Amino acid sequence: MQMKKIIFTDLDGTLLDPGDYSYEKAKNALELLKKKEIPLIFCTSKTRAEIEFWRKKIGNNDPFISENGGGIFVPKDYFSFKIQSVKEYNNYFLIKLGINYSQLIDFINFLKEKYNIRSFSDMSSKEIAVDANLELTQAELAKKREFDLPFKILNKKQEKNILNEIDKHGLNYTIGGRYYHLLGDNNKGEAVKILSDLFRRKYGDIKTIAIGDSENDFQMLDSVNEGFLVKKKNGSYASNKYKKAKGVGPEGWNKIVQQEVL
Fold first, then answer.
1. Which helix (H) or strand (E) holds 231?
2. What is the distance of C-alpha 157 from the center of its chain?
3. Rounded mean pLDDT of 141-166?
4. Residue 25 has what pLDDT?
5. Measured between alpha carbons, how far is residue 31 from residues 211, 250, 254 in Å?
6. Cα–Cα distance between 174 and 176 in angstroms, integer?
7. Which strands, in side-by-side order, build the sheet including 172-175?
8. Distance between alpha carbon 131 and the CA centroid of its chain, in Å?
9. What average pLDDT does the segment 14-27 reach?
10. Which residues are marked as active site?
């Protein structure tokens, strides 16, 4: 019996085009995954509300990981066995790894007293739409945060001091494609490990594959059997450490999935 494959993927700049958020160039690979019944796990800095939008659009029914590992959401009927340490959350079981969003806002407000920064908590949906090149409806979903607070450092000379301040107060940060992200003691890699263990309970031996595009994907790529980076919009890769998918965003994604699955 062939080993079951599980694919974890970032969304922005990876499965979704870094320019127009289209997944058109990945459609062949997406159809292949459905045909072969290979789980596709969205693991992203996006909110639950945003991920639910893309799951519906793409036709994905698998578990997902929101806000840089802050929450693992498992559809209630997905696994036949009982999952430990979960909360019921709408139609999901939630494994919560992140701290409460209100704590992140309190700390950002503390930083703003000394440093020139701007976070999603300060920005209107319209501002986020313009800044992140999102449709207004998507920007509204992006504001529905639970475990992770995106922010911008407006004075780059303050960057080192701000990041040191975050470390000093026992919080964490990661750097995505457009924003820094303030978070608690959670990351994509830890969430991937927990969900992989659940898949092992279901299937036995599995092969885990992850695809990303930026620095905040590195821990996810380190937590699987094979990690790949797609090209950024400018044609570069975020690191030379990982295997490379030949193509920007969904084009590279499509190639690597077909290569790994066939």
1. strand 226-231
2. 28
3. 96
4. 97
5. 17, 14, 10
6. 7
7. 117-119, 148-153, 180-183, 172-175
8. 19
9. 94
10. 10
Sheet holding 64-66, edge to edge: 87-89, 92-96, 71-75, 64-66, 40-43, 4-9, 206-212, 226-231, 243-248
Each residue's pLDDT tens digit, 100-136: 999 999 999 999 999 999 999 999 999 999 998 889 9
Q: How many beta carbons lie within 10 A of that of residue 114, not counting itself? A: 11
Whole-number pLDDT of residue 1: 58
Q: What is the pLDDT of residues 21-43, one digit of tens each?
A: 999 999 999 999 999 999 999 99
State how far the Cα of 210 lies from the Cα of 187, in Å rounded to an integer.
Answer: 14
Nearest residue to 41 (alpha-carbon basis) of 208, 166, 165: 208
CA 121 to CA 134: how far, in whole Å? 17
pLDDT in tens, 63-76: 999 999 999 999 99
Q: What is the pLDDT of residue 185?
A: 92
Domain boundaries, the chain: 4-97+187-261, 101-183
Question: Can you tell me the distance from the alpha carbon of 172 to that of 36, in angstroms, rounded to the nearest whole number?
Answer: 38
User: Domain 101-183: what homologous superfamily?
Assistant: Putative mannosyl-3-phosphoglycerate phosphatase; domain 2 (3.30.980.20)
The domain 4-97+187-261: what is its CATH number? 3.40.50.1000
What tokens does 244 get? 């490379």
**Polymer length in residues for the chain:** 262
Query: Residue 261 has what pLDDT?
Result: 79
Nearest Cα residue to 8 out of 202, 190, 185, 196: 196
